[in-house]
Amino acid sequence: MRDQACLASLSQEFLPPCSCRQARQKQSASTVRVATGTMGFKHKALDLETVRASLVKPNYLLKIIPHVDGSPRICELVDYRLEDIVMKGAWTGPATLDLRPHALAPIAELPVREIISATHIMADLTLGLGKVVYDYLEA
Q1: 45 and 96 in a common domain
Q2: Do 47 and 5 fall into the same domain?
Q3: Residues 66 and 96 both lie in one domain
Q4: Which of 57, 33, 41, 53 is nearest to 93 (CA)?
Q5: CA 1 to chain centre
Q6: What are the tens digits of pLDDT across the range 73-119?
Q7: Count of domains for the chain
Q8: Which neighbouring-strand residues pair with 95?
Q9: Residue 88 lies in domain
Q10: Alpha-carbon radius of gyration of the chain
Q11: What is the largest CA-CA distance in the chain?
Q12: Which of 1, 2, 63, 66 has the most beta carbons within 10 angstroms of its beta carbon?
């Protein structure tokens, strides 16, 4: 009953008028979960300054955008930083990871042999603008 009430309020607030069954179909048709992680809730608190220090370090991503014909258009290594970090809390604890098969995201084929650590961080932060470190197409 509780789920039906939640779906009914969801349909009233965000969806056009419809039955609960239609709301459930719309909700489940738009999301496909390929990975689920679980963790003990607030199992062991972490030092906030230590966690903050790890967040201010540089992060890197590989930005790949293909051209309309499928050839590479953008292929860059980008450095980005987290800014204006206000820590609210940070915890560690036991965790699990469940990978599900999907035709377009074959992540489930990767073997999970061991969960080394899990961290839950609550913070207000800003994702700063990136800086191109290396452009693979200009090399």
Answers
A1: yes
A2: no
A3: yes
A4: 41
A5: 30
A6: 999 999 999 999 999 999 999 999 999 999 888 899 999 999 999 99
A7: 2
A8: 39
A9: 36-135
A10: 21
A11: 61
A12: 63
User: Is residue 63 domain-shared with residue 102, that is, in the same domain?
Assistant: yes
Same domain, 11 and 48: no
Q: How far apart are CA 3 and CA 10, in angstroms?
A: 10
SS3 of 66-118: ECCCCCEEEEEEEEECEEEEEEEEEEECCEEEEECCCCCCHHHHCCCCCCCCC
Paired with 80 in beta bridges are: 59
Q: What is the pLDDT of residues 10-48, one digit of tens each?
A: 333 333 444 444 444 444 555 888 999 999 889 999 999
Q: How far apart are CA 62 and CA 79, in angstroms?
A: 9
What CATH number is attached to the domain comprising 119? 2.40.400.10
